[in-house]
Specification:
about 280 residues, alpha+beta, Lipocalin, 2 domains, two-stranded antiparallel ribbon, 5 helices, about 25% strand
């Protein structure tokens, strides 16, 4: 009787394995809870509020620990920016050569939820020496968010694009055409600061699910092989597990399309490198 009960338990385990551990064959997602939440709440607003609260707590905490000092969000009055210098006037001004680079830190938090059109300010951390001119540390640079979006499906991370358009020098503000080439010591390509892409990570996770399912099926086959009554059925779990593993591997490029990328959040005091695209003139 004890052997019969043991056999019965193993048979039930087979059905349980097939019925409840098949994520490798398809991407299971219980959306019933999500639909109820979306019906009552704005899920995008909840996500943004959570991120903003996290950013504010992080900024406050770091400020208390004197990791860096945050400065107010300084909005540039563009009416105070001098117009472009004419060719005739250039001989009376000092030139900052094209491609000059500046090490700066942000004066406010920047994230992929920062709206397009938001003004961003930076402060240089090191002096820059060029022919006939020195741009001291503490110089202000002004920019504007020209594009941004939160993390997206297909593993695409958050994005923010900032254009630098003014520099303050000797109490006067001048036009400045620049872009960001580094953010927190990481290279930035095409001026696009991006959150971590998660697509390949999503592919790997789906394959791992299939592998774990296959390992469970092998363990069940081994148990059945030790039972004289169920030994004839012992290959079944392994075959099912192998099918699941194969299915997870083949379908992983598709199921990974549902994965969101990483959020982008750069607190005030983060380091950047600014590159001057066109030569600038100051006095």
């Amino acid at each position: 009787m004890t052997g019969f009960r043991k056999s019965l338990n193993i048979i039930l385990s087979i059905f349980l394995l097939i019925g409840t551990h098949m994520p490798a064959l398809c991407y299971e997602l219980d959306t019933s809870v999500d639909k109820e939440i979306q019906r009552k709440y704005n899920s995008k607003k909840l996500e943004q509020d959570y991120l903003n609260n996290t950013i504010n707590k992080e900024t406050t905490s770091k400020g208390q620990n004197n990791v860096y000092k945050t400065t107010p969000n300084i909005q540039l009055d563009y009416s105070a920016v001098l117009p472009e210098i004419t060719k005739a006037e250039k001989k009376f001004y000092r030139k900052i050569p094209q491609w000059t680079r500046f090490s700066v830190k942000s004066d406010q938090t920047i994230s992929n939820y920062t709206k397009k059109g938001t003004k961003i300010t930076f402060t240089s951390t090191q002096p820059v020496y060029k022919k006939n001119i020195t741009i001291p540390a503490g110089t202000k640079f002004y920019g504007e968010v020209v594009n941004s979006h939160p993390p997206q499906r297909t593993g695409n991370g958050g994005l923010i694009v900032i254009k630098l358009n003014a520099i303050s020098y000797n109490g006067q503000t001048y036009p400045f055409n620049g872009k960001i080439t580094k953010a927190t010591a990481k290279k930035v390509f095409l001026n696009k600061i991006k959150g971590k892409r998660q697509y390949l990570s999503g592919v790997g996770k789906q394959i791992d699910k299939g592998e774990n399912f296959y390992k469970k099926s092998r363990r069940l086959s081994n148990k059945m092989a030790d039972n004289p009554i169920l030994i004839i059925l012992s290959p079944v779990p392994t075959v099912v597990g192998l099918a699941g593993y194969t299915g997870a591997t083949l379908l992983s490029p598709l199921t990974a399309l549902t994965v969101k990328g990483g959020n982008l959040s750069l607190p005030a005091g983060s380091t950047f490198e600014i590159k001057l695209i066109d030569e600038a003139y100051v006095n």
